Amino acid sequence: MVRVVMETGEVITSEPYFRTRNEPILAATDVEEVYDNAVDRIKELIANYQRQGSGWRFKNVVKLDIHTTENEPIRGGTYIPLPPKLKNKKAIINLKNEDDQCFKWCVTRALNYQDGQKKSVQNN
Questions:
Q1: Hey, is 123 helix, strand or coil?
Q2: How far apart are CA 46 and CA 44, in angstroms?
């Protein structure tokens, strides 16, 4: 961004940073729409910056970065140990099992739990 101070003729430059939010890109995501939304957001940020002080003009793009990250979501059947603070509350069912039926085992245990009963599935 550049602006000229009218009284002195001094040229002031600024290199503001304009960022957009991260957006998840899935198989069904329209990448062009995500790109268009990001461009529109950056244009809006530039316009807001220009309104902050009179005379700011867009000169050029100094740097443009597009960051991507591979996302591997946790799938059903994955056992995650509870942090000690939650585990010690004894209020959360977090069963270890040998199949991918975690939800079924948790509901079954919650509906049929009897204090002191022999556990058929190892508890954490």
A1: strand
A2: 5
Q: Which amino acid type is present at position 32?
A: E
Tokens of 39: 């461009």
- Per-residue pLDDT tens digits for 4-56: 888 898 998 888 888 888 888 888 888 899 889 988 999 998 888 888 776 78
Q: Count Cα atoms within 13 angstroms, Cβ side, for 23.
A: 16
How many Cα atoms occupy the beta-carbon half-sphere of 26 within 13 Å? 3
Question: Beta-carbon neighbour count of residue 102 at 10 Å?
Answer: 18
Contacts 24+ apart (CB under 8 A), 37-43: 42/18
Q: Give this prediction's pTM.
A: 0.51
Runs of H (alpha helix) within the chain: 31-52, 84-87, 102-112
Rounded to whole angstroms, the Cα distance separating 16 from 42 reads: 11
